[in-house]
Amino acid sequence: MKNFLFTTVAATTLLSISAVAAAEKVTITIESWRTDDLSIWRDQLIPEFNKIHPDIEVKFNPTAPTEYNAALNAKLDSGTAGDMITCRPFDNALAQYDAGHLASLNGLDGLENFGPVAKSAWTTDDGNDIFCVPMASVIHGFIYNKDAFAEVGVSVPETRAEFFAVLDKIKADGNYIPLAMGTNDQWEAATMGYYNIAPNYHKGEEGRLAIIAGTAKLTDAEWTAPFAELAKWKDYLGDGFEAQTYPDSQNLFTLGRAAIYPAGSWEIAGFDANADFAMGAFRPPVANKGDECYISDHTDIALGMNANTANPVETKIFLSWVGSAEFAAIYANASPGFFSLSDHNVKLDNALASDFVSWRAECNSTIRASAQILTRGTPNLDTEIWGASVAAIKGLSTPAELGAKLQKGLDNWYTPAN
Amino acid sequence: MTPKIKTIRWHIPLLLLPAVIIYSAIMIFPLLATLNLSFFNVEEGKQVFVGIANYIVLFGNEIYSEKFWNALGNNAYFFMIHMLVQNPLGIILAAMLSSKKLRFTAFYRTAIFIPAILSFVIVGFVWKLILSPLWGIAPDLLDMIGLKSLFLPWLGKEAYALTTISLISVWQYIGIPMMLIYAALLSIPEEVVEAAECDGITGSSLFWKIKLPLILPSIGIISILTFVGNFNAFDLIYATQGALGGPGFTTDILGTLLYRTFFGFQLQLGDLYAGSTLATVMFFIILAGVCGYLFGVQNRLRRYQF
I want to staple B120 with a disulfide (CB 3.0 to 4.6 A). Which of A118, A307, A318, B235 is the partner? Predict the structure, then answer.
């Protein structure tokens, strides 16, 4: 760690020296955990930006995801961090803003292209200040094996009754495991299960904000009903789903042994590479045909400005560009499954990805219910929901018991503002 | 009468100094710093002294205490399995290896010891694969002998996960008690054994009446090593079940609980102060166990000089 710090300090010092030497050309650096995106930035995004602003040199400087938070905080404390900081959603970035490491971006050009849900992950609790430009989100839904659907003779379900009818048929057919999901890793059951289907019950933002405001409780029917639905999934999971891990589920689906995969859109690139059958996607089923639908469109990544940057003007120019349509189009197409959060109408080349993103036009977007504010104390609601989702699927507790447990945990530390 | 000149032998502290400095810097100081940190907390952005408030929360608040007692209970069970399975089995293996009639002892010794030098990541991964209900060989093996119906996804079932993990850990570390006992058995002088044989003690009673009492001190040391190792355990559970000690916290032990508390996990932010409190409690649990052993048991064991 010390060695690592020393090299980064040395590297940044060298950088700043070379910047002084170049003088006329300003270099700004981006701190990020997206090592996977290195080529996208280097080959596509930065050259595109330099077409408009050739005088600003941009360096993308990623750190391994597991080390990012610790390394970045150390660099921020010692004043050696880059000009731009890739923001984790919610409390992590908020803590950096509160500590004075991230600058307020109120009034930045380009921010007008983002809706309130998109900005929610990087605004203060009172909603007054925004400190990162939203970049991308991930959407939940179900990816299905088109060949399997054709073979069994079922079509894409729209309502819950249809969804379970499809599962029954696939199960009766016997060739495919109806649902590829396991409970071993816990987060899988919560993220692909609960957070995926719950927005249709709690009416997305309305329910989420009601919990934060304290006008609704997790014991209410709209919060416990998703657990009841999860309990019904049990019969459609593979043998030994209790010990099935997340990679197991991915493999079951891409090997063509399972028909439906409760998914997050980040799977798209991997599935496209590994599955040799046609895939489609459908959104979480609603209660009745034509009901208003809600999807989990979870804010995941954003870009902010180091409050102590030496080049605030250039950094702001770049951040405004991150809010532009060009950036959205390049980024969303280069990493299918990570969707631009801006209101720009981006055309996606990837069929599966455009399936996912099309739901935005038909449904209301929300984020995972526990992500904002509610995970701040102990026990944090997110991890509690992991355990509760697993318990629901296994049938260890009734939905009402789970709701009561979650609410009790939340009451332990959270008092709604009003 | 000339006064006795007291010479201070400077070379002794001087020679001790490097070890003292290094040990203090990397062991004593962090230990005391952790202890110190457990008396602080953050209030309104500032670190303030809170006395034993953190401990009151840990033991008094149901949310924390429930997790703590659960982890402690699991840890005790984890230790119990090791004491009941690993150590007796280690002794039996060592006794068999030291028997002169057994051939290929070097091979068995090496084969049984190899898992102990494997990384926990490999052990965790291999066993997870063996027991996987999807791709594992365990269901197929059971199928071959017609016992497929006995197969369960053990690592995913609340009732079996902790026992399964404990047995995996036993499998990994059984070589260590075996080696220590084996060495102790080899160091028993031939004369003692021959004298016993002259008195008509042979076969298994030779082991029970002569050899076992002679290796009791080694068994004591192994027990205490097992105790310390088990209550500091973390790696195998983390590798097979993840930091949450799933399913449903049934394999959550003090190590994983400390990891989550101190470093945070996913959206849970790390809490330095609660983590230090827990680390201090763990330290005292282990200290109590070791002291209890040293003063209660070790001193009473009779030693034989040859």
Answer: B235
ipTM for the complex? 0.75
pLDDT confidence of residue B32: 94
pLDDT at A22: 46
Token couple for B49 = 């002294």
A125 shares a domain with A23: yes
DSSP state of A111: G
Residues 178-197, chain A: which have Cβ within 8 Å of B?
182-187
A311 plus A223 within the same structural domain:
no
Inter-residue contact A353 to A268 (CB < 8 Å):
yes
For chain A, the domain total comes to: 2
Q: Please, how many CA atoms are within 13 Å of residue B61, restricted to the half-sphere of its CB?
A: 16
Q: What is the pLDDT of residue A417?
A: 73
Contacts of A186 in chain B (CB under 8 A): 242, 244, 246-247
Stretch 65-124 of chain B: residues touching chain A, C-beta under 8 Å: none
Chain A partners of B134 at a C-beta cutoff of 8 Å? 238-240, 244, 248, 251-252
CA–CA dist A84, A28 (Å, integer): 8
Sequence spans of domains, chain B:
53-300
Alpha-carbon distance of A68 to A37, in angstroms, equals 14
**Per CATH, is B53-300 categorized as 2.60.40.1940?**
no
- Using CA coordinates, name the residue in chain A closest to B132: A243
Would the pLDDT of A71 be above 70? yes
A185/B158 CB distance under 8 A: no
- On whether the CB atoms of residues A191 and A352 are closer than 8 A, the answer is no
Range of the domain at A343: 2-136+300-353
Mean pLDDT value across residues A267-295: 92
Assigned domain for A235 exists: yes
Inspect the interface and report whether the beta carbons of A184 and B246 lie closer than 8 Å: yes
The reply to whether A418 falls in a domain is: no
Rounded average pLDDT over B63-86: 94
